Amino acid sequence: MEAPPGQWSCPATVCHDDPSASAPSGRKAADPEPFTVPGWSQLTEDFTILRSHGPFFLDIFAGQAGITEAVQLMGVPALPPVDVVVSDLVNEAADVLDLAVWETIMAIIAAKLVFLLHCGTPCNTFTAARKDDGGPPPLRSRDAPLGLPGLSWQNQALVFMGNLFLIRTCEACTLVFNLGGNFTIENPLLSLMWATAMMDQLVHDTRALAVDFDQCAFGAPSKKPTRLLCSAEHFEVLQVLCPGGHVHESLRGKVFDPLQGKLVFKTKAAQVYSLGLCVRRSPALLMIYGKILFMLYNPRCS
User: Fold this and answer.
1) CB contact at 8 A, 47 and 104
2) CATH code at position 96
3) How far apart are CA 33 and CA 256, in angstroms?
4) Is 20 a member of any domain?
5) Which domain, by its residues, includes 208?
6) Is residue 82 in a domain?
7) What whole-number distance in Å separates Cα of residue 3 and Cα of residue 68?
8) Which residue, 2, 45, 293, 295, is the most exposed by fewest CB within 10 angstroms?
């Protein structure tokens, strides 16, 4: 038989076994070694190394970075999780209040290197659990979600920092969305953050939807009703309420915190039980999250 027309043999100068061979035109050559994303201390110096990789998942206010773990288990590239507390998955502390860190994050987003941004924005000053009952006093209300008048200077500082976290959350999510990416924001269902004009504007501008669920449905010890504001409908599968048949851990009173060596309010201790940690402790939720993020990373698979 005669060979079909065209060239069917590898040129002598380019062999498939030759590691120096270049990829065919229009195709990206596979990296000889897996790309390791640098830490934030390096990225703040120069993030341009990311341009030939990604796009990436980014988790800000990551806590123990359970969602980043779900992403990585699906083989989806992720930037280092951003949090001020080092943990098993947070190898290097990074603070969004550090201007160099924040400018780098926004520059990476502006370069269209983030396909999904998750923000577990701190809720400590926005919590509705603060009441005039002898515990930590309220700092906000539904009528004044950005801060009550007459606060002490210490509490004014807490409110200011919480407001700045909110501003940066909305700023980053708006930019990601406007450049074709998606975002999710997590906070307790009754958080006063949802009552702010900034959050209303974000919802209006991005047509984001609220997915409400109880964390106990995914293995958390307390019911902890939670809202996930999402710019993608894929997360609607998480809208699961308490199925019953179990006892909820009460979040009233105090509990001993071995890390601080003192008693702390249970509501304070429960703040660390974020969605990210819930994902990490629940194999089912870990799988669900991983699949959702894989579909967002590979739109043709959705």
Assistant:
1) yes
2) 3.40.50
3) 46
4) no
5) 41-301
6) yes
7) 51
8) 2
Report CA Rg, the chain.
23
Matching residue, tokens 């400018």: 103
User: Token digits for 294?
Assistant: 């894989």
Answer yes or no: is 24 within a domain: no
Instruction: Give 17-23's long-range contacts (Cβ < 8 A, gap of 24+).
Output: none
pLDDT in tens, the chain (302 residues): 454 454 434 433 333 344 444 444 443 444 456 788 999 999 999 999 999 898 999 999 998 898 999 889 888 999 999 999 998 889 999 999 999 999 999 999 999 999 999 999 999 899 887 776 667 789 999 999 999 999 999 999 999 999 999 999 999 999 999 999 999 999 999 999 999 999 999 999 999 999 999 888 887 777 889 999 999 999 999 998 888 877 767 655 566 555 556 665 555 555 545 788 778 777 778 888 889 999 999 876 65
Question: Is the C-alpha dihedral spanning 221, 227, 231, 235 positive or negative?
Answer: positive
What is this structure's pTM?
0.81
Give residue for tokens 């065919």.
Answer: 24
Amino acid at 124: N
Burial class (CB in 10 A: 0-12, 13-18, 19+), 188: buried
Which residue pairs, CB below 8 angstroms and at least 24 apart, start in 135-144?
135/265, 136/265, 140/192, 141/192, 142/192, 142/195
Cis before 136 (ω within 30): no
Q: How many domains does the chain have?
A: 1
